[in-house]
Recover the amino acids of this structure.
């Protein structure tokens, strides 16, 4: 997940944040999202001997799981612009590559499956990133993508519900100000089919979470990391951020923090003349 386009004007949302706190945030995301990612990858048919590409590999939990599933006869390549979190992890059977997927020589049509989770939403040039992923995928291979929908966020109950909703509006505004799509997950199936891929599975999850839930904690940590960009939208104050943090920690509070849409799609096989 810690992936970025290389151009300064389109930086990854979490570029430059505090490292220890960011690793904690990534580990929390793994705790929440890995079960769903594994479900989608299993649905792709991924198994022994497959060649796999993990784009924006974050702290490496899915890349490590892929390596176990494909076995020694398979291949797993984990790409990230910043591989610091990957290098600190024990990832047997995983080839770690640092760089921008659009500029790396990964060999065309090499992989049986390409997976990315919460990568496209954080990059203004998500179409170019998708082009690079598709170029790396074999004909007949599977593209597995998971993207959030931050427009789904809404407070249900709690003393700080109004602050929670205002910060959610600031999150949407921050993405839009950077030329990014905060509701990209909603459009993911249409984006994939517009590229000529056949949808094989779609999952949509927008859980209603109690304060203290791991997803609430992820978003509390995100608010700490992105305090300045949130405030720069002009939509919220420091008081709102403090209220959002209390909402996320209060067991009496309930809210939807974001939705996630997952897609498994098949690249067309080559036609024979």
């Amino acid at each position: 997940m810690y992936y970025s386009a290389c151009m300064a004007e389109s930086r990854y949302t979490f570029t430059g944040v505090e490292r220890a706190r960011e690793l904690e945030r990534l580990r929390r995301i793994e705790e929440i999202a890995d079960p769903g990612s594994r479900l989608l990858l299993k649905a792709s048919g991924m198994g022994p001997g497959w060649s796999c590409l993990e784009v924006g590999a974050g702290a490496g939990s899915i890349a490590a799981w892929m390596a176990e599933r494909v076995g020694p006869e398979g291949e797993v390549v984990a790409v990230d612009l910043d591989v610091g979190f990957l290098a600190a992890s024990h990832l047997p059977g995983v080839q770690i590559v640092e760089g921008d997927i659009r500029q790396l020589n990964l060999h065309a049509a090499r992989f049986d499956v390409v997976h990315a989770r919460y990568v496209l939403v954080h990059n203004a040039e998500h179409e170019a990133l998708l082009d690079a992923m598709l170029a790396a995928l074999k004909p007949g291979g599977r593209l597995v993508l998971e993207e959030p929908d931050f427009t789904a966020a809404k407070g249900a109950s709690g003393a700080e519900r109004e602050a929670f909703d205002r910060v959610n509006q600031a999150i949407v505004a921050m993405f839009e100000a950077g030329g990014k799509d905060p509701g990209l997950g909603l459009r993911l199936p249409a984006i994939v089919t517009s590229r000529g891929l056949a949808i094989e599975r779609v999952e949509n999850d927008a859980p209603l979470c109690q304060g203290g839930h791991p997803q609430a904690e992820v978003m509390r940590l995100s608010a700490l990391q992105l305090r300045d960009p949130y405030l720069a939208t002009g939509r919220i104050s420091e008081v709102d951020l403090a209220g959002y943090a209390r909402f996320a920690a209060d067991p009496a509070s309930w809210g939807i923090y974001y939705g996630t849409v997952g897609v498994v799609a098949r690249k067309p096989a080559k036609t024979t003349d």
